[in-house]
Amino acid sequence: MKLPKQAVPPSLTKRAAALDAALTAGDAAAGARAWLMELMQRDGPSIVRLLWRTLGNQQDVLDAYQEMFCRLLAADRASGRPPFRKYAYQVALNIAIDMRRRRQVQRHHFEPMARQRQPGPLMSQTPRPSYVELMDLLRAAVDALPNRLREVVILRDLGEMSYKDVGEILGLTIGTARVYRRDAIVQLSQMLRELKDL
Fold first, then answer.
1. Residues 150 and 143 sit within 8 Å (Cβ to Cβ)
2. C-alpha to C-alpha distance for 87 and 89, rounded to whole angstroms
3. Cα–Cα dist 79/35, whole Å
4. What is the per-residue pLDDT across 81-123, written as a single tens digit (0 to 9) for each?
């Protein structure tokens, strides 16, 4: 299943680069966090793309990106050695999943209140779902997958990573990553088919 491409807005890329510079400004001069600069240069755009496709909201992406680097710096201070690439992607993935869960809980809390509104003349027609609504539906289906399947789909399809990179980040073989993705696509297909029938 080929997921629709959702281009990262240029303004988001520029703001993420500015965030990179701000996060490393003090340390770059001293050379104390060279690993952080290397990670940002090598994997920053890929991580932003992964977060964008997972979250779909510019402010959430920036918040998650900043939170990821704060956690990496805290882990560096606690352990005395820099975190590895695998850990950085896992942290970004966990932050994105947590943000999606929080948003889902908030939506669940406020949805009953929205249903209580009486439809006016303009609200009585059933509009076609928009692209944003369809992407939210797809993201919700991905959120419902078991953890390992969700992680593989997010990294492979939303993050556009190779099976080799997915396996490296999640500690899986390439074959296992392929099998997990196939299982995830089958489950997503079933979930979306059931939603269509409702």
1. yes
2. 6
3. 14
4. 666 788 889 999 999 988 988 888 777 766 665 555 555 555 5
Q: Which two tokens stand for residue 57?
A: 């909201």
Question: Tokens 């928009």 — which residue?
Answer: 130
Every domain range in the chain assigned CATH 1.10.10.10: 130-198
Report d(CA 157, CA 184) in Å as an integer. Answer: 11
pTM of the model: 0.65
CB 153 within 8 A of CB 143: no
Q: Which two tokens stand for residue 156?
A: 């492979």
pLDDT in tens, 147-186: 999 999 999 988 888 999 999 999 999 999 999 999 999 9
User: Cβ distance 28 to 41 under 8 Å?
Assistant: no
130-198: CATH topology: Arc Repressor Mutant, subunit A (1.10.10)
Rounded-to-integer distance, Cα 161 and Cα 26, Å: 31
CA distances from 191 to 63, 124, 161 (A): 30, 28, 24
